[in-house]
Design goal:
With 745 residues, the chain is of the alpha/beta class. It contains 24 helices and 18 strands. The chain folds into three domains: 304 residues, Zn peptidases (Aminopeptidase), CATH 3.40.630.10; 222 residues, Glucose Oxidase, domain 1 (3-Layer(bba) Sandwich); 176 residues, Transcription Elongation Factor S-II, Chain A, CATH 1.20.930.40.
Length: 745
């Protein structure tokens, strides 16, 4: 405690030394406009009320509200009415999308000790909404294909590509088998995808208590962790190909639009999939034979974890209603007074798998409170310079349906008018987290320094930075302390920001609080409801208010700036790091493959292995050639120089409010996109950020280059280096044009 206290004092002194003078204008503002902006922001942050946010969550979580349900539409209409009552111009934009729901589900263990899985979460007397059975979606994985398959079971750990390499080394095949994988590490949609690629005929995904059950705390309702019969629903759509309506990729799914036939849709799984609880999983795991798994594959059930195959067969049978359902996106517009054709967009989804108090209403409710606060500012005479759109998306849970269809439908307008998109989803108690476009890294830092943490009373920026420094390695800590701005993460996918940053190249931030509440095991279960949230999450709703204060301040500050407050030296520094990483990746893979091939050639690999488990050594991999990284190195250097030149011009002339530069600045992030898209998935156009083909939600930076190396596609690496470098150079040219405008002023 003494060490931490000393660190706090030292850190506070350092942070104070880095802080700009209190009277320095906000970035992008003239001195006069900055003073007025600070006053409006302070008025805004005083308005949100925890009790209002609590009651909004109570109302919206009162019943299950998945896509196509009566209460989903009811919530959309209620949100519309609330926004109008705040004095905002609001409407519902309706789309439709393919959303399969279960027709039949069966999972059974055959043989001498038969077992049939319950596939149901029980009602709990203490939890008032857990018994709404007639309205709840059953436990299932959306966009699993229909199927009735029988085969032996094989345990594949988390079902990542590396897990199958481990199985191969142990002499275990999944061909013709039903795999059983545990939730975690990889996104759920990757598990059936990789299983099918290795010849499996079905996939079961279960929640192991080691990951979100009793190994981490008391099971619900005594604690927040997943109970024995708790199940994680979720989509297994092949989202790394494209998100949104599977039948209308790239096109807003309005009624009557041409649809891809179901049998031609790429994003439906190739094998049937079903999620189960650990109570249902235990008999299937006990049926496994074969070798004992490595230690890091073992869960926390009181059994010996084995790979399989099982002697007893399992049968997995699922069928679905392949219906198209309506989506209700609620959009409120506050017209801009000076730059009405420049749009600042705020979004959070309102649909859920069941009652969804944490996911998504802990983000939806603060956003609604932000909108109310903006309505109050309008009554006091505030007028934003730019147009503000407050969006409440439908259909996020099945796979970003409402946001994707809306943005695809409005794609041309968004490319022309959008200056930033601010996203949130679930929110809990603790530290501030932000990820997004690194041209907004400085902006995020500036806002976070002005928001007070509700418990520590220091700024949310200072609290998050302190936590980051305490957890960092000595090398990372030293590097971070040299930077005035804390780093923000990169975005892959997993929420409604995906279409904005990955497809359209719109500057984007995703933000939330978390990390200090009790861990949650109710993700996508019937128990993620108001009772659960108010007993185990942000029980006082003060971090709900903090989210509203933070996101709302970002919206106002971006909307009112004279010059868009993008900053590019942080971005250039980040891109330089990404280039260094992919070069190291290539070197490491080259060294690893050389060493492995040498071992195989010498017979060392077979001699060191257990002959009972490994009968044939793996094939020799081709050693990757030396790639031509010169274009990326040059582009990174050019971006660093252009960013520095722009910053010098901005420091001299930016405070003059030279608004002509905004039109050029709005092109900077779109310049980083390529209309050809990424290899084998053209919907993803951003050459800097994308969800990984085998990670799903997890980001791959410089994705075209990085994944070509990771997937050993040596022949295309140089071409992807050139394409990525060209995108960076396009941004360099835009920055030079912006610098010229400022210098000319």
């Amino acid at each position: 405690m003494h060490r931490i206290s000393v660190f706090l004092m030292l850190y506070s002194f350092a942070a104070f030394a880095l802080a700009p003078p209190a009277d320095e204008p906000l970035r992008g503002y003239t001195a006069e406009h900055s003073a007025a902006e600070v006053q409006w922001e302070q008025k805004f942050r005083a308005i949100p009320e925890p009790n209002r946010i609590r009651e909004d969550m109570r109302r919206m979580s009162a019943r299950p509200h998945h896509v196509g349900s009566p209460y989903d539409k009811d919530n959309a209409e209620w949100l519309l009415a609330q926004l109008k009552s705040y004095g905002l111009d609001a409407k519902i934009e309706q789309f439709e999308a393919l959303f399969p729901t279960p027709k039949s589900r069966k999972l059974e263990l055959l043989g001498s000790a038969p077992f049939t899985a319950k596939l149901e979460e029980p009602t709990l007397a203490v939890d008032p909404t857990s018994g709404q059975k007639s309205e709840q979606l059953p436990t299932y994985n959306a966009y699993s294909r229909d199927g009735d398959v029988t085969g032996p079971l094989v345990y594949v750990n988390y079902g990542a590509p590396s897990d199958y390499e481990q199985l191969a080394a142990m002499g275990v095949s999944v061909k013709g088998a039903i795999v059983i994988a545990r939730y975690g590490e990889t996104w759920r949609g990757i598990k059936p995808k990789v299983a099918a690629q290795h010849g499996a005929v079905g996939c079961i995904i279960y929640s192991d208590p080691k990951d979100d059950g009793y190994a981490n705390g008391d099971p619900y309702p005594d604690g927040p962790m997943r109970p024995p019969d708790g199940v994680q629903r979720g989509s297994v759509m092949d989202m790394p190909i494209y998100p949104g309506d599977p039948q209308t990729p790239g096109v807003g799914a309005k009624p009557g639009v041409k649809l891809i036939p179901l049998d031609q849709v790429q994003t439906i799984t190739k094998i049937p999939v079903l999620p189960i609880s650990y109570a249902d999983a235990k008999p299937f795991l006990l049926a496994l034979g074969g070798p004992t798994v490595p230690e890091n594959w073992r869960g926390d059930l009181p059994i010996t974890y084995k790979t399989g195959p099982s002697k007893a067969m399992a049968r997995l049978a699922v069928s679905f209603n392949w219906d198209r359902k309506p989506l209700y996106d609620v959009v409120a517009t506050i017209p801009g007074s000076t730059f009405p054709d420049q749009w600042v967009i705020r979004g959070n989804h309102h649909d859920a798998w069941v009652n969804g108090a944490e996911d998504p209403l802990s983000g939806t409710s603060p956003e609604l409170e932000e909108a109310r606060a903006l309505g109050e500012l309008l009554k006091q005479g505030w007028k934003p310079q730019r147009t503000i759109l407050y969006c409440f998306w439908d259909g996020e849970e099945p796979m970003l349906l409402g946001s994707t269809e809306w943005a695809e439908y409005h794609a041309d307008e968004l490319r022309q008018h959008a200056v930033a998109y601010f996203n949130s989803d679930g929110n809990t108690r603790g530290f501030f987290h932000a990820s997004g476009s690194h041209s907004l890294e400085n902006f995020v830092n500036s806002v976070a320094k002005d928001i007070q943490d509700p418990e520590t009373k220091m700024s949310i920026w200072k609290r998050a930075r302190l936590a980051s420094l305490l957890q960092a390695s000595p090398a990372m800590r030293a590097e971070e302390q040299k930077r005035a701005d804390s780093r923000i993460g990169a975005l892959g996918s997993g929420s409604d920001f995906t279409v904005f940053i990955d497809h359209l190249g719109i500057p984007t931030v995703d933000l939330a609080f978390g990390g200090e509440d009790e861990e949650s095991g109710q993700y996508h279960s019937i128990y993620d409801d108001f009772y659960f949230y108010t007993h185990f999450q942000d029980t006082t709703f003060v971090y709900e208010r903090a989210l509203a204060q933070t996101a709302g301040t970002m919206v106002i500050r971006m909307a009112d700036a004279d010059v868009l407050p993008y900053q590019f030296t942080d971005e250039a520094d980040t891109v330089h790091n990404y280039v260094t990483e992919v070069k190291k990746l290539a070197d490491d893979m080259r060294a690893e493959i050389k060493d492995r091939n040498a071992d195989i050639a010498a017979g060392a690999y077979q001699a060191a292995a257990d002959p009972k488990k490994v009968s044939v050594p793996p094939p020799v991999d081709l050693v990757p050639p030396y790639f031509d990284f010169a274009p990326l190195d040059q582009a990174s250097d050019d971006l660093t120089a252009a960013a520095a030149e722009y910053e010098r011009a901005f420091a001299t002339d930016g405070a003059n409010g030279e608004t002509a530069v905004n039109a050029e600045l709005m092109k900077t992030q779109e310049a980083l996109t390529d209309p050809q898209g990424l290899p084998n998935r053209p919907w993803y156009e951003n050459m800097i950020y994308a969800p990984g083909f085998y990670t799903g939600y997890g980001v791959k930076t410089l994705p075209a280059v990085r994944e070509a190396i990771e997937q050993k596609q040596w022949t295309i690496v140089d071409a992807q280096i050139a394409r990525t470098a060209a995108a960076i150079e396009r941004e360099v040219q835009v920055l030079k044009a912006a610098t010229k405008i400022l210098s000319g002023s």
